[in-house]
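Posting this for the archive.
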Amino acid sequence: SYTPLATNSVALNLRSPTFTMKTIAALLAVAATTVAATTPSWTKVGASAPGTKLDFTVALPQRNLDVLDKLFWDVSTPGSAAYGKFVPMEQLNKLTAPTSAHVAKVQRTLADAGMDCEVA
């Protein structure tokens, strides 16, 4: 589980016309930098015992972010034919998910290294 290192919060007016995706990106960059700067360094304590199970996540790049950006602006812009016609999350996930070929390649690479792989 994740425990936040800082408890600072910022109230954002998401309905403000000056609040853009670039603003969100800038805020996320600042948050990432803050977390990286406050994360303690790792200390190597030794090798784990043979057979020890280690769970980790591999995040693959999202696709079609240009299409996602256009959808965002289309549903958010008064006067657009798509204004207010929000896209279901399942459809957005399919739009941005990595290709099955990309997932399979990562699975093969992990399997070739002797790892069990489960797609979530």
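DSSP finds four helices and no strands in the chain. The CA atoms of residues 23 and 94 lie 25 Å apart.
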